[in-house]
Design a protein that fits this description.
The chain is mainly alpha-helical. It has helices spanning 4-7, 44-49, 64-69, 93-181, 188-196; strands at residues 22-23, 26-32, 53-58. The chain has a domain at 4-69.
Length: 197
């Protein structure tokens, strides 16, 4: 039985394909790992006994003309193109195709989930921004109202002070004018006050 590892060529080997004894129709090639005697000078028994050798087996190339000549004339091979339009042998194709389709399906589902998650995040962010904007507007309105009320209070207190000062000044001027004009009887207010008594 030929293993896949027997078919591999070991890189770094010093020898080249040299002796090719035939064994059951298979061609055996002995490739030494180290610098030793030439492979042709080593007997086959010793070459098989060495563990430092790599054995590579090659299948003989069949004669296709003889193979096709032996087929009956009524033989009609099926088309090498399958239902999906691919041609060639499909030894591992269907499992690979199923695996690939499963991977594509899984990636599609994951991308759909990612898209839905991102849309939800965008909606949440937009609603949060809208709520924050409403809060900021309300806060600014309250702050503006407070500032307006504060300005109104300041204006009212300033008006009250100025009005009080003006009233005091007017009453002081009026009182002085009354006091100054009273002895001469020129002030009607003094006459009024004098009559009411």
């Amino acid at each position: 039985m030929v293993r896949f590892s027997d078919l591999l060529y070991q890189e770094g080997s010093q020898g080249v394909e040299a002796c090719a004894p035939r064994l059951n129709g298979w061609r055996r090639t002995v490739i030494p790992k180290s610098d030793g005697p030439a492979p042709c000078n080593v007997p086959e028994e010793e070459a098989n006994a060495r563990s430092s050798k790599v054995v590579r087996a090659q299948a003989p190339i069949p004669d296709f003309e003889d193979f096709f000549a032996g087929l009956p004339s009524s033989f009609d091979p099926s088309s090498p193109v399958d239902e999906l339009g691919r041609s060639g042998l499909n030894l591992l194709g269907s499992p690979l195709m199923r695996a690939w389709e499963a991977m594509v399906y899984r990636q599609g589902r994951e991308s759909e989930k990612d898209l839905a998650r991102m849309q939800n995040e965008i909606l949440e962010r937009d609603s949060k921004l809208a709520r924050d904007h409403e809060k900021a507007v309300r806060r600014a309105e309250r702050k503006g109202r407070r500032e307006i009320v504060e300005v109104m209070k300041n204006c009212a207190s300033q008006f009250k002070t100025e009005y009080g000062n003006l009233k005091d000044a007017y009453s002081l001027v009026y009182f002085r004018s009354v006091v100054q004009l009273a002895p001469f009887g020129r002030c009607k207010a003094t006459n009024f006050f004098s009559r009411t008594r």
